[in-house]
Design brief:
The chain is of the alpha+beta class and 242 residues long. Helices cover 41% and strands 12% of the residues.
Length: 242
């Protein structure tokens, strides 16, 4: 048995932005995948869930040091800060400050670190049942599955959680149904980002803040929210509203 368990890296990472991020960003991302708790724990009275960890910049710099001859080399704090900003911007992680360091949550950890979610590559032999599918049936099914896979459920819910500092699940049927319906109507990922940021900017700190949730934001007024005008600046980043 190999000690200390394991963590998974999906091949789909080759299609994500992290695949072409600067080397120190990729290494720090890998560090958080490796350090995140595989099970819920309680540490010094704090609940740390699966996919979370508490680390300082000093922890990161020390853990990722390397040697050149006799010299010990480390990333600078600025390197770490840049990497963290990149990872948060691309909804790879979320963070919040604590007295012991940064409370880091790896987005979608539950999805990508669950072995059952990966394709089984073993060959299986099955007897055909009923009438064989025609090429037309297969093509229609394949097209439907492809269109479904193109809907960025993970990215939308991760962006929502990052903006609101929330923990909505991407597996919630109602949330997925709302997102799918809007995509069928022609709305895009950027439209979702604009609506989330607009309403966060408008409702944060008001009595309307309780409506910052998927069923309200992605409901029947989505298009109205998208086309609202006012003081909202679409060029601002998430951090400008926190």
């Amino acid at each position: 048995m190999i000690e200390n368990g394991y963590y998974l890296k999906a091949r789909i990472i080759k299609k994500s932005a992290i695949a072409h991020a600067p080397p120190h960003v990729r290494e720090i991302w890998d560090y958080f995948l490796m350090e995140a708790n595989h099970h819920d724990i309680k540490y010094n009275g704090t609940d740390i869930k699966r996919g979370q960890c508490i680390r300082t910049y000093e922890d990161i710099r020390e853990a990722l040091h390397w040697t050149v001859g006799w010299r010990k080399m480390r990333y600078s704090k600025a390197n770490c800060e840049t990497a963290m900003k990149w990872l948060k911007k691309h909804t790879m992680i979320t963070t919040r400050k604590t007295t012991r360091g940064m409370f880091v949550t790896v987005c979608n950890y539950e999805t990508y670190q669950e072995p059952k979610n990966y394709e089984n590559h073993r060959r299986t032999t099955r007897k055909p049942t009923g009438e064989p599918q025609t090429d037309d049936t297969i093509n229609k099914k394949g097209k439907k599955e492809k269109n479904e896979n193109n809907i960025p459920y993970l990215q939308i819910v991760s962006f929502l959680n990052e903006t609101l500092n929330a923990s909505y699940k991407v597996t919630t049927p109602k949330t997925r149904e709302l997102i799918k319906k809007l995509f069928k109507q022609g709305f895009t990922f950027d439209d979702f980002k604009i609506v989330i940021e607009k309403k966060h900017c408008a409702w944060k700190g008001t009595e309307w803040e309780r409506y910052l949730r998927p069923d309200t934001l992605f409901g029947t007024k989505f298009e109205s929210y998208l086309n609202e005008t006012g003081t909202f600046n679409k060029d601002k980043k998430i951090g400008d509203y926190q």
